[in-house]
Amino acid sequence: MEKAKVLIVGSGVAGAVRHLPFFKNHPEVELVGMIDPDLARARRVADENGIPGAYPSLEEGLRRSGARIVSICTPPQTHKDLTIYAFEHGADVLLEKPFAVTLDEARGIVAVQQRTGRKLSVVHQNKFMAGIMRMTDIVRRGEAGRVLHVGLTWMTNGDQDRMVIDPNFWCHKIPGGRWAESLPHQLYIAYALAGEMRLLSVAARKTTDKWPWMSADEVDVVLESKEGYVNIRMSANPAETKRRINVLHGTKASYMFSYKTAFALAERPNAKISVELFRRWLGARLSAKPRQAAPPSPHEYVINHFLDYVLHDGPNPTSPEEALHVEELNEHFGAAFESVIRKAPGG
Length: 347
What we know:
Strand content: 15-25%
Structural class: alpha/beta
CATH class of the largest domain: Alpha Beta
CATH architecture of the largest domain: 2-Layer Sandwich
Number of helices: 11
Number of domains: 2
Number of strands: 14
Distance between the termini: 61 Å
Radius of gyration: 22 Å
């Protein structure tokens, strides 16, 4: 049976590093081309990876390759036109986040998707990290009770962050800047744990003279959920490369979780329970069980499930409804952030 043909739009990190390997190695599809206005870069990536085609535009790529699946890994300013063109020419789309620059653009994409009957998924990959999936399962099983508060921390060492240190990176041209590029990750994780939200407040301040093109290096976001509140803390100032430490408080229990793990917290730990947990941990460490294969990376998980959705009508890893809600909140954040910056001394 002929394999489904795939095109990747964008030869940067997202396209060439995060998407390419998993489309290339999937047994049911053939990666037939890279697309980039910088044709030399597209050709270089294609040649290095044994991909037969390189094209300067999606129009030419679809016309010459016959592909019916498109992975769009370009800045969000291009998403609306590229996605709608793909839909109207018979292709299903995997779209990197942010969904679009504005909610109206995102709604326009969904309207064409519904009219054409094509399939759309937005890359919300970090909700498939092991610790986030474990925390989501705990909430879904009711072990936490009603979710009263979610606190998410996203901290990046600005001196090592490629988006922070590059004044020409596309994120600095959208409302909210670097933070609006990152915030969707925290919003879709919060959505998985607490459901729909509304923005209550944004605080932002500049604490260092570094990165003069960034108007804030410390940001705090508060949202209201159905049962309680969500707080998102973002910073460019930690000493380590990244810091992702999160908490969830429910009516039954409280938890700490990261991308890798999730565990319950107790104000007064029960000694017997602590000893039993240590015994189990030690037993697992000393057992001679064969080493398990590493779980798929978040992008591999998303791409595999997207292809199952397209080829076999499996569940969509990110529904348009979720993507629209995240885009709406991110747009509200961007507007509130810019308002805070204008009101700040010297703003």
